[in-house]
Amino acid sequence: xxxxxxxxxxxxxxxxxxxxxxxxxxxxxxxxxxxxxxxxxxxxxxxxxxxxxxxxxxxxxxxxxxxxxxxxxxxxxxxxxxxxxxxxxxxxxxxxxxxxxxxxxxxxxxxxxxxxxxxxxxxxxxxxxxxxxxxxxxxxxxxxxxxxxxxxxxxxxxxxxxxxxxxxxxxxxxxxxxxxxxxxxxxxxxxxxxxxxxxxxxxxxxxxxxxxxxxxxxxxxxxxxxxxxxxxxxxxxxxxxxxxxxxxxxxxxxxxxxxxxxxxxxxxxxxxxxxxxxxxxxxxxxxxxxxxxxxxxxxxxxxxxxxxxxxxxxxxxxxxxxxxxxxxxxxxxxxxxxxxxxxxxxxxxxxxxxxxxxxxxxxxxxxxxxxxxxxxxxxxxxxxxxxxxxxxxxxxxxxxxxxxxxxxxxxxxxxxxxxxxxxxxxxxxxxxxxxxxxxxxxxxxxxxxxxxxxx
Length: 455
Hints:
Blueprint (H helix, E strand, L loop, with lengths): L1 E5 L1 E2 L3 E2 L1 H16 L7 H30 L2 E5 L4 E2 L4 E9 L5 E8 L6 E3 L2 E6 L3 E10 L3 E5 L2 E6 L5 E7 L3 E6 L26 E12 L11 H7 L3 E6 L5 E7 L13 H19 L2 E7 L6 E2 L3 E2 L4 H10 L15 H15 L5 E6 L6 H15 L4 E7 L1 H6 L6 H7 L1 H15 L4 E5 L4 H13 L1
Parallel strand pairs: 5-14, 17-18, 17-21, 21-22, 22-23
Antiparallel strand pairs: 1-4, 2-13, 3-13, 4-6, 6-10, 7-9, 7-12, 8-10, 11-14, 12-13, 15-16, 18-19, 18-20
């Protein structure tokens, strides 16, 4: 993937060294009348300094005009995944007859990425091109790369110009997968084609068979036509209505980003969501992904199904889960707006069959926000759906980093843990089942819940 851009040049300016020389030249001219016999020497020195600065500025102006005509490309890999090392190439083409010596080139990478060699010094030949490469190890989610900057200084370093190359691009990095259990609980009705249907007898919408009436059967399901034809009471049997549709909603709150890069709750939830996509696609579930980004404007996939949907689901998670560029730049919508947007999006997606709704959110680690989400989720539950909330616990994530000192940390974090009890109470009062957890064994727990409801 190549991104091309032209330079946006800022006006040349004097460096600190150039400013000192300019001030020195002016001072020499000012003090020359008071210098007596050395006044002429002072005037000559001041004039020489100022002429030198003007000459270097004119020389730099030519170089600066050359930078304006450069063509720059950044070549990125087509697909980027977490934890792998990638090489990024920057190509600079100079169509002019003027060479550029010792130009400092620097790419602007996300602060959460590990990188090496993104800043270098190059000489760009006339009517030619030059390139350099650097390595990156990305973190999962959506990131902004760019712009690229170029700095040129004259041979004496008295003036410089900074050019900005607008090579901004947003890149989605796919999370690595958690260990998806290979030996799953057997679910009746999972066919190789990927359909999920329970063959258990029970109440449901799909007709299964007609059989002889037994005293414990509900008389409302007697099939009178079959009864008349057979001369004995016959009853209709329906398929048990099992969950075959799954909605996974990922709520990206600001508190998900707490912690050390590589072990934040945000990164873990992206890995969890991608692993669930891998599992559901392999098992043949019909599923839908919903993401509530920081601004609260929900994005979602259509209903997906089958092994071929895996790549689409993972790509959707990577490209719609943005990191904040800096702590004050990204605006996070309030919990009321986010909860309402989630409810609207899910209501648009619900069909006639029972749906398993899984919300991954820490509710801003705030009891008031949890109440707002609970109101929305309870209305979805009242429609006959199974609703679960998965809440990553900051204290447990942080304790994981401390090793033997984790026990002491949990004692210090007692008040934080009690806060989660309040959040859990807000949801469970409305019948929302909730799992407050750290990063271990969560995937197997969720898969177990889905399979039990699908049996």
